[in-house]
Amino acid sequence: MSLSGKTAIVTGSTSGIGRGIAVSLAEAGARIVLNGRAARDENYEIAERIRKDTGAEVDFVAADMADPEACRGLIEDAGGCDILVNNAGVQHVAGIPDFPVEKWDQIIAVNLSSAFHTTAAALPVMRERGWGRVINIASAHGLTASPFKSAYVAAKHGLVGLTKVTALETAEEPITCNAICPGYVMTPLVEKQIPDTMEKYGMGREEVIREVILERQPSKQMATVEQMGGTTVFLCSPSAEQITGTTISVDGGWTAL
Ligand code: NAD
Fold this sequence. Notes:
Blueprint: E1 7-10, H1 16-27, E2 31-36, H2 41-54, E3 58-62, H3 68-77, E4 83-86, H4 101-129, E5 132-137, H5 150-169, E6 175-182, H6 188-201, H7 205-212, H8 225-235, E7 247-250
Parallel strand pairs: 1-2, 1-4, 2-3, 4-5, 5-6, 6-7
Helix pairs in contact: 1-8, 3-4, 4-5, 6-7
The protein binds nicotinamide-adenine-dinucleotide (NAD).
Nicotinamide-adenine-dinucleotide binds at residues 12, 14-18, 36-37, 64-66, 87-90, 110-111, 137, 139, 182, 184-185, 187-190.
């Protein structure tokens, strides 16, 4: 399948899952718009590397996904939008009474509200171009909960709700909206949680990975960024034309428990 002629915007795509998805979409022939918070040299270098590796056209647009106007500006500045992957996300782990208010606000802004703003700006562009795919990177935490992750779980459940509404508002058009719900994928976001979790449970690194992080992932294996990319490309394929308003879990059986 070729996505040649399509422009794909992937938010928060200079590392981890977003970068993996951008590479898969580039390999499928799409023009890629990478996004990160700041116009740093290293972000343009990542775009250049993907361009060299895949032969796709790859641009980088700086926009802070915590800022509503910047979210809408990203879509305007991208030069087209056929595929929108709302991937940017942040995490903070603390009990509810101790959860810093600014962390709550940041997580809701980046993990949930940004998808509302980008989708609001992208749908008119997709309607004009006559085709569109909105893919929201939610989480197993969009379907189930864990203690100490109140803002993240609330934001991801909200993102699954936004996915359904977007699908219903576009149901009679050649536009679909779905959420991918990964279990654990080894990326910087997961890596950052390991020291806190080691401290909280008084465990070593390997024990934390197997017994705590992968405790709810029956496969006992992390999913990969390539699997997230492959699932995204599938959702852009003709086989997925009637898949809309749903969640696809890529979680090693987590949500089957
Ligand atoms: P990551 O930290 O590697 O990637 C997150 C990306 O979001 C980074 O590129 C970061 O720069 C970007 N970002 C953060 N704040 C931003 C902002 N204000 N503006 C623009 N970009 C911003 O983490 P990841 O694991 O690749 O996470 C990607 C998505 O996948 C997130 O939404 C996360 O919640 C979700 N997810 C991850 C896992 C996992 O196990 N890694 C599991 C389920 C869901």
